[in-house]
Specification:
Elements: H1 3-25, H2 28-60
Length: about 60
């Protein structure tokens, strides 16, 4: 095999890897995990706001 054949095989392997990654990223099984990860920052913000609200209520007493 010459250099061109190796390059062709490598290109094919990279293409297959790309397709596998795209299918994995858009699969329904991964959707909920990615959605949870995307919304995690908002959950932290809600916890922070709840903590501040509780502290304000305690300081009013």
């Amino acid at each position: 095999m010459d250099y061109g054949t190796y390059r062709g095989i490598l290109t094919l392997v990279i293409l297959v890897l790309f397709i596998v990654i795209v299918v994995w990223a858009y699969s329904k099984r991964s959707k909920t995990r990615f959605k949870d990860a995307a919304n995690a920052i908002f959950e932290d913000e809600k916890k922070h706001n709840d903590t501040i609200s509780n502290e304000e209520k305690e300081s009013e007493k």
